[in-house]
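Hello again, I could really use a second opinion on something today. I've been staring at a protein lately and its backbone has me curious. Can you walk me through what the tokens say about the fold? Take your time with it, there's no hurry, and the full record follows here:
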Amino acid sequence: MSDAVLITADRAIVSAGARGPTAILAVDGEIVLVGDPATVAADPRAAAARKIDWSRRAMVPGTVNTHNHSFQSLLRGIGDDLPFLEWRDRALYRYSPRLGAEDMATAALFAFGEMLLHGVTTVCDFYYLNAQGNDNASATIEAARRLGIRMVMARCFYDWEGAPASYRETIPQAVANYEALHKRYRDKSRHMTTVQPAPHSQHGATPAMIEAGAGCARDAGEPWHIHLAEEKYQVDQSLSRFGKRPIHAVADLQVDMASMIAVHGCWFDESERALLADRGGSLAYCPGSNMFLGDGVTDLVDLVARGVRVGLGTDGGCSNNRVSVFDEMRAAALLQKVHRTDGQAISAETCFALGTATAGEVLRLPIGQIAPGYRCDVVAVDLDDPSLWPVQALEKNVVYALSSRAITDVVVDGQEVVAARRLCNVHLDEIQARVASLTRDWTRD
């Protein structure tokens, strides 16, 4: 039997822009009709649908977080205000190796629960604490399912000997574990769980490991993820090891760059941006994290002008410390404007798309738009919240002024997961207690 839901709101941001009173009808999690409330309500399929009334609220697409490391939320505050390599060694490498599957579930409930409260309906978790198996990744996926958030598990391929043992695998291990995880969670009907390969980086994965990850992506029909040129030293390493800058070095490998999602790209030069565009690659852009760690400034304006698909990401909870893609929209716009000393460098509308529709395209999922054929992932924002006044400038206010307190309700795949500012499926008190117990003795000293 089909599950239908009818959602009405006083205003909405749909694919054509902001509009007045709007209703959507979704069947089995897919939007089938968008229009004025009377017309949508008259559709025969609406008669038996569940009704959700968002009076005095605006309906906006759920945001899409294209890059995160969920376990890092446990480390929030531990490595703040440190240089990148010291942050890595004193926070990540110090605490992450001790985490097991139950701890990963706690981290996921924490990170993803907070994201839902901030209007994130899809998250891509770039996941490298695999301990030569899939127990940790499975625990993270099951936590996401419990909360009701849509998830991409970007399972890491990592063989750098300088990393903790729990990060590392041989190529045969990584391939076998990826294939098993992908087979277990393959979900092409509702797209609630997707498993994609993620060779860590040029320093975290050998060229053969990168090729193995890209090969798994080809065989599975998925994109693949890789950190590239986040820090200047990583460009220097690439030049030293391979004689070429990062994008050019990766292009020399047996990989399909059209299915590649590069992460960060702060230090891409013009030739790399041109090659990424020419080969059809995408970028996960994390402006908040790049500023937090002092990485550098990705030339977003040039990448967008060249036609590169870009999606916003928050990165980890200890390398940004916030989990809101709405925050990243604002950060992306302001960082590009000040970097170019040009207030017209990029628009609010473009940055809104980077956190919704274009981000969905990056992950190759039917998400990020309020339109027929897309999954029913929508967020209600309170029109009585002063951060959205005056409401005539709704789309710009969502990007530049939105307060998290204005986010009242969240629906993922047609199911309510946040109602009246509370998680529907997990009590926040449970998450708080689990996090407090796990991190009680953690310090930055």
